[in-house]
Amino acid sequence: MSKITTARLQAMKQAGQKIAMITAYDATFATLFEQAGVHSILIGDSLGMVLQGEASTLKVSVDDIAYHTRCVANGSKNAFIVADMPFMSYSTPEQACASAAALMRAGAHMVKLEGGDWLADTVAQLTRQGVPVCGHLGLTPQSVHVFGGFKLQGREAEQAEQIKRHARALEAAGIQLLVLECVPSQLAADISRELRIPVIGIGAGPDTDGQVLVMQDALGLTSGYVPKFTKNFLAESGNVRAAIETYVAEVAEGRFPGPEHSFN
Ligand SMILES: Nc1nc(=O)c2c([nH]1)NC[C@@H]1CN(c3ccc(C(=O)N[C@@H](CCC(=O)O)C(=O)O)cc3)CN21
Ligand SMILES: CC(C)C(=O)C(=O)O
Ligand SMILES: [Mg+2]
């Protein structure tokens, strides 16, 4: 695989080639996932839950994400590296620039922010300063206490329209990628069709430009409750590399996610 860039991701959307993204938090998995054909690696603030054992992502710090971004960047040659901006690390454009500087210096190629049109100035400011930005709409886990749990978003028509408006506003502000989490498949399909930039889904049905999963979910390592939209690819594959090759292939062929992983 040659180096994946924002231009390449955009071209993949135009060509109808599905983007496979997965989280990783260290060099070993970053290398393995890249060899398995993953296009993009996310250093997700999900690490607060899967690595640190917390009940939410809220305690994760910029230093935590920077540390794991450096680990992933050291294990990666060609994947496009996206780092999550943690809870309360982008409350103003100035704070966002300071946080993003730490993550870009750690080796990220893009930062991801949770939220809608109120982040337009922040997105524009980061982009002007040379930091590509990924949006994140739908179930934004940093707002778990506002939502009252990790719940499907955009089920009502009015709420769906609001998510569409936020997606348009973020694209206009300059985001170059958008994650849509835990929304009805039809809403994700509509937004993916309307926006020029690639849209990556998780629990958003099959009709986005790509998919993302938390690596522990894709490998069946998560114990207790696992979200409906996840799939254990290791169960059928026998080894980690083959499991992630299967994930990439099923995303490419539109076989994952199936209806059993989606909200309709
Ligand atoms: N292991 C793991 N996987 C993830 O996908 C993930 C994390 N951790 N940590 C950070 C956030 C939290 N996420 C979550 C967690 C739970 C649900 C969940 O329980 N969803 C219900 C939806 C129920 C409904 O409203 O219908 C589901 O059944 O999937 C969704 C996303 C996604 N992210
Ligand atoms: C689930 C993905 C999209 C994420 O934001 C994370 O891993 O933190
Ligand atoms: Mg996250």
Automatic annotation (TrEMBL):
Lineage: Bacteria, Pseudomonadati, Pseudomonadota, Gammaproteobacteria, Aeromonadales
One cellular-component annotation, GO: cytoplasm
GO MF annotations, alphabetized: 3-methyl-2-oxobutanoate hydroxymethyltransferase activity; magnesium ion binding; methyltransferase activity
Gene: panB
Protein name in UniProt: 3-methyl-2-oxobutanoate hydroxymethyltransferase
Species assigned in the record: Zobellella denitrificans
SUPFAM superfamilies associated with the record: Phosphoenolpyruvate/pyruvate domain
Family the entry assigns: Belongs to the PanB family.
Residues at the active site: E181 (proton acceptor)
One Pfam family, short name: Pantoate_transf
UniProt keyword annotation of Magnesium present: yes
Listed pathway(s): Cofactor biosynthesis; (R)-pantothenate biosynthesis; (R)-pantoate from 3-methyl-2-oxobutanoate: step 1/2
Cofactor(s) the record lists: Mg(2+)
Protein residues bound to 3-methyl-2-oxobutanoate: D45, S46, D84, K112
EC number: 2.1.2.11
InterPro entries: Pantoate_hydroxy_MeTrfase, Pyrv/PenolPyrv_kinase-like_dom, Pyrv_kinase-like_dom_sf
GO biological process, one term: methylation
